[in-house]
Design brief:
This protein is an alpha/beta fold. Helix content is 31%, strand content 16%. The protein has a seven-stranded mixed beta sheet, sandwiched between helices. Strand 5, helix 4 and strand 6 form a beta-alpha-beta unit. Helix 4 packs antiparallel against helix 6. It starts with a strand and ends with a helix. The model has no long low-confidence stretch (mean pLDDT 95).
Amino acid sequence: MDLYTLAAGTSPLVVSMPHSGLALSDGLAERLTPQAASLPDTDWHVPQLYDFLEGLGASTIRANYSRYVVDLNRAPNNTSLYPGQATTDLVPLTLFDGSPVYREGQEPDEDELEARRTDYHDPYHKALTELLVETRMEHGFALLWDAHSITDEVPRLFEGVLPDLNLGTVGGEACDPVIERAALKAMMDHEEYASIVNGRFRGGFITRAYGRPNQNIHAVQMELAQSAYLDMGSKAFDETKAAVLRVALKDVMTAALRAAENLYSGEMR
């Protein structure tokens, strides 16, 4: 199986989906605990939710392998995204709830960790880097949208219930302020959803590594509460919910993209 699926678009928008993959590397399934084998921390059905991206001219790259093989939104040196707070590793050893990923004695050793970084993490980021550079060369800038979702309540990671729309810009460092403001306004216009910017999810490795406004690459992360588009009992895709959420997502993405385009056309200078 290919490590990722990439489709080149026609606009400055690049969408990354690093956690929606379901495939496991050879022999891995037998080593996982029964709970981990169900892949509970997957960003379920994110590609299906974002089925409108071709209409926006977006380029897309999505992982085909599960985050339990390697987490593409973690630094290759495994630096913590949120020092002092619970998180998961480049090669996760625990689920979001803190329970083990591996059966006792089946955890990967250092050689295996390095091999997964080389074989899975590096190729995805090489492809994403090339896609962003090509997009910037063609359009003068690139807007990276890192698409995620998570179950609404994970006490180990955050208190209470997660808002529906969680935009992360690394505290404003990963994109120009006009892009963040435009996205926020579009989010707030959709009063049917609870929204926040730079809350618990400020942006993972992808947003932090690639968001370089001074180099004309802007990045945001959108973390969605899964109840906004899934049946939470079965994690099945709920088309009725998704149809409403797609309108909001498309509006926010369009607002961010237009703000970026205006920025580079001089209209906001």
